[in-house]
Amino acid sequence: MNNKLQCKVYLSDEGYGHIVRQSAILEGLLKLMPETTFTVQTHKHLDAVSRIIPGVDTIDKFNNISWQKKANGSPDVPNIKIQFNNYLEDSERYIAEELDLPTPDFILSDLVYEAFEIGAIKSIPAFGVAHFTWDWFFSKLYPPPLTTSVMDRFFAMAMKSKTLYFPPFTPEEILVHYKKNSMEVPLILRSEILQKRVDSKGKFKVMIIDSGAGVLSKSVKKALHQARTLDDYEFYVSSKFRVEQANVSFIDEHELLVDYIGDMDLVIGRAGFNTISECIGLRTPMLLLGEAMNPEMNENIITLKKQHLGSFISMETFENEIDSFLPSFIAHEYKFIAESMRNHTIATNGADVIAKDIQEKLA
Predict the structure, then answer these.
(1) Cβ distance 28 to 53 under 8 Å?
(2) Closest of 209, 333, 339, 338 to residue 325, by C-alpha
(3) Which whole number is the average pLDDT over 202-229?
(4) Taking residues 259-286, what's their average pLDDT?
(5) Contact 56, 39 (CB under 8 A)
């Protein structure tokens, strides 16, 4: 095998979690194939890519997959339908543009479907990594926003991947649907989480994590105001909030909040997969916020509650009753979750497992 390989990474324009996840996999690949070079193509969060995965080449281009949201972060079904009206034509045009570009040795993607089609046409292996697929996600919305022809195209292109890697908590439907070309792997975490510490002031430490798009900003501010009388708690939030409150401390908005998770007593945030993975890996109890009509978040919450690794708080309670809810939760359910976190045996070396499998399949 040629040691000087080139990899092109296609990222969808959704959130930061998948960027952190891909950074862990690239780190694993570099351990095994140190001369490999990477080019990451995405659009909306290109600055985050440069910050989270330093040293990689980047291309600013929309990769033909995203979804419209309402102000509260939930899916905007009518506008998603409009967004995908011309998807089939856009997909063909996108693929034609990519085929004119230099050919890498292999492709890695978080489920940009066209990446697998491009790999098949160019006869190079294309690997996918995700904890849910877009065909599954859109199929759970009502009324269904995508046509059958679009969904069929998603599936047909995904089946052309060399391997789709699915970590724990991937919905069973997806594992069955893609059984022929998928592999289940452990949780995907960076091997060198910085494990930064804060001055707790002897208080119970609670981190509140907003989404990358800031959809919880108003709710977080309401909750912090409601929690102003909880003197035994210290709340840690991004410095973008600028709240003047005695029991609130700030972490610089340019830092990764996940680097502080291991030093927290509790994390409150959206039920995004990366937050869940980091909390499980660092054994920090979590309190999850749902989003109306978001199938990914709902699935994550159900799974975590079943395994007693986290609990759920409604947005209404978070915004208006956190001052009474939190002490009661800490006194009761929190103890069981903390014990489950201490004792779980969930493996977190998914990045290394994926890197090793890719290396073997490139040989």
Answers:
(1) no
(2) 333
(3) 88
(4) 91
(5) yes
